[in-house]
Amino acid sequence: MPQWLCLQLMRAFHNKNRRQVKLLNDCWFFYRTKQNEVKEQS
């Protein structure tokens, strides 16, 4: 997981910002699935 994303998630959890946690979580899973698709095509 990229460092910037980790920091954003920690900040969102600390501030109890559910909307931001959900958004960042969705971004991470989207990024991860895209990376897996690229690896499988190679």
Structural summary, described in words:
The structure is a single chain. Helix 1 runs antiparallel to helix 2. The chain has one domain. It is built from two helices and no strands. The radius of gyration is 12 Å and the shape is elongated. The chain is mainly α. The mean pLDDT is 92.
Defining key terms:
single chain; 42 residues; mainly alpha; 2 helices
N/C terminus separation:
22 Å
Order of helices and strands: HH
Uncertain runs: none
Cα radius of gyration in angstroms: 12 Å
DSSP strand count: 0
When the domains are counted, the total is 1
Concise structural overview:
InterPro entries: CmpA (IPR047764). Pfam families: spore_CmpA. By secondary structure, the chain is mainly α.
SSE topology:
Layout: H1 3-14, H2 18-41
Helix pairs in contact: 1-2
Organism: Paenibacillus residui
Protein name: Cortex morphogenetic protein CmpA
InterPro entries: CmpA
